[in-house]
Design goal:
The chain has 2 domains: 139 residues, 3-Layer(aba) Sandwich (Rossmann fold), CATH 3.40.50; 176 residues, Dihydrodipicolinate Reductase, domain 2 (2-Layer Sandwich). It contains 9 helices and 15 strands. Strand 12 and strand 13 form a beta hairpin. Helix 1 crosses helix 8 and helix 3 runs parallel beside helix 4. By secondary structure, it is of the alpha/beta class. The strands form 2 sheets. It has a 9-stranded mixed β-sheet with strand order 14-13-12-11-7-10-9-8-15. The structure holds NADP nicotinamide-adenine-dinucleotide phosphate.
Amino acid sequence: MKRIAIAGAGAMARVRARALLSTGHVQICGIAARHLSSAQRFGAELGCEQCFDDVHRLADTRPDAILVEVPHETQDQIVLWAIDQHCHVLIGGSLATSAEVAGLIERRAQEHHLVVEAGYEARYSPIWETARQMLAGGDLGRLVSIRSIALWAGDPRTWYYHQHASGGMPITHMTYCFINPIRWLVGDPRYVTAFANKVHHTAPELVNEENVVANLRFDQDVLCSMTAGFVAPRGLPAWSVTFIGTRGALDVMPDEAGAGTLTVYQGEQPERIDFAGQANAFDAQARAFIAALDGQAECRNTPGQTIGDIRVAEAIVTSAHECRTVAL
Ligand SMILES: NC(=O)c1ccc[n+]([C@@H]2O[C@H](COP(=O)([O-])OP(=O)(O)OC[C@H]3O[C@@H](n4cnc5c(N)ncnc54)[C@H](OP(=O)(O)O)[C@@H]3O)[C@@H](O)[C@H]2O)c1
């Protein structure tokens, strides 16, 4: 059994705790939130009595690993503290709020031989695994371009919409959808050109880049256009990635549980593959993380594999601010 402590008691802490417990190899040994009542409520659900309003008290519960599910402004310091406690870390969000801190996390985790995994579950989902195999197998011919859209109706009352608390929309939202899975399929982009605006919720403390259109150029002249933002008109289909090749195209339309549909355009008729009911990506990621603690599996979102997501998000911000192309 692995002893897992949890920092945070919100929506995603619940999703990940369930996934970790589903491995059958996890005992939740402690929970900390900002408010004790919040930690205790979550503790009652999980049968965990060690609940705190100070994350540092989690060290008293002798965890093997810490699940960090907090707003991004506090995430960096909690992750670095957890590593200093010689705990493995599963991070609910992006690896860090900056490439600088991500680099620090990478170095310290290596020094202490710890597993650190960022929270992008896409790389564990059957839909993205299938898309990856099709691209690697040359099913679409030579890849020419990629088009993605990810609009999410953010709530300006939550920390997600706050620049300081979230680290900004590109880090919070675009690394998930869909920088992280696109990089898994086609590697790192070399150039980034982006524009951003802020038109719906404009209070100064809210995210600087509310809506972004970014163009990326990958190796072998693969072009990518990404639209993402926190303004999402109700009912508009706005959550997909299309890969266009010389011999066909692939539409990936993931849903929140990591299922969704994939449509292949090759012959006379498009072929639609439905991933409903397939393995849950959070469960698969939890299994990989727990197995990795004993060296029995490799994680897919290690610091080395995900620092690039943050670099792309930072390049998007720099490009939009300075009105220039950024070379990576
Ligand atoms: N993979 C995905 O699909 C996905 C989707 C959405 C979000 N996420 C990520 O999941 C993570 C958590 O997001 P969420 O939506 O669960 O957030 P949330 O519901 O707002 O919950 C945040 C939790 O953090 C606690 N907290 C705040 N400051 C703290 C501190 N200093 N020490 C300890 N706990 C503290 C809060 O405590 P109180 O309850 O006492 O206020 C709350 O329980 C984020 O990194 C986010 O990017 C991932």
